[in-house]
Amino acid sequence: VAGENFDQSPLRRTFKSKVLAHYPQNIEWNPFDQDAVNMLCMPKGLSFRTQADNRDPQLHSFIITREDGSRTYGFVLTFYEEVTSKQICTAMQTLYQMHNAEQYSSVCASSSCSMDSLASSIDEGDATSLAKLQRYNSYDISRDTLYVSKSICLITPLPFMQACKKFLVQLYKAVTSQQPPPLPLESYIHNILYEVPLPPPGRSLKFYGVYEPIICQRPGPNELPLSDYPLREVFELLGLENLVQVFTCVLLEMQILLYSQ
């Protein structure tokens, strides 16, 4: 388990994640930092869900800044895939049995010491809470399907957010689709790593993803730097007043700290 969140139910806990694979194995100008990329791809750790939970894919981005000030940009698509390991499913059910036993013990401990009052207490109020606990906070290996989070990530020298998002979404669809893509998945990964060049300044580049073409544009030397992030999301996340306040702080050259989960 990642962190000290044992008070949470097993499906609400986070677990330690790790990098399963990365390509290419090494780049001279961008050495792969496994710990940093692992933490940035899954900042909250590995998580589990069941068929009753929301499992929509989520995209987020990150920046790695080196000592010399150079930057690389990461774009991550996190999704959930079914757990096929019987051992992991059994372990999850065991965790739930332990968790529910602890919850039951805490309910009993908070009640009166006498058996009569304990029984009446459970009959009246605590039985309801225990029933809710078991109904909404449980995992049954024979009834529920267990899913675990997984991420695919692209690390790029420039923040081509929209192009990376489209490629990752298409790659995810190819992985989860019942119909295989036109070519093996390795072909698309090899193509974007070795055959798609960085567009020259002031030019645009069109390349083919898995299903649809993708276009990315790079500003010229006399243009504003590349900003491929949708401004609408900034307004939705911060709100108009907060955004105006942040912009005011930028103009006044004040130090700004944005804190989030």
Give structural attributes.
261 residues; 39% helix; 4-stranded antiparallel β-sheet; 6 strands; 3 domains; 7 helices; two-stranded antiparallel ribbon; alpha+beta
Number of domains: 3
Average pLDDT over all residues: 84
Spatial shape: globular
Low-confidence stretches: 117-122
How would you classify the helix and strand content by structural class? alpha+beta
Fraction of residues in H or I helices:
25-40%
Strand content: 15-25%
Strand order in the sheet with the most strands: 1-4-3-2
Order of helices and strands: HEEEHHEHHEEHH
Radius of gyration: 24 Å
Largest sheet: 4 strands, antiparallel
Distance between the termini: 18 Å
Total number of β-strand segments? 6
Helix run count: 7
GO molecular function, one term: guanyl-nucleotide exchange factor activity
Pfam families: DENN (PF02141), uDENN (PF03456)
Domain UDENN: 1-261
Protein name: DEN5B protein
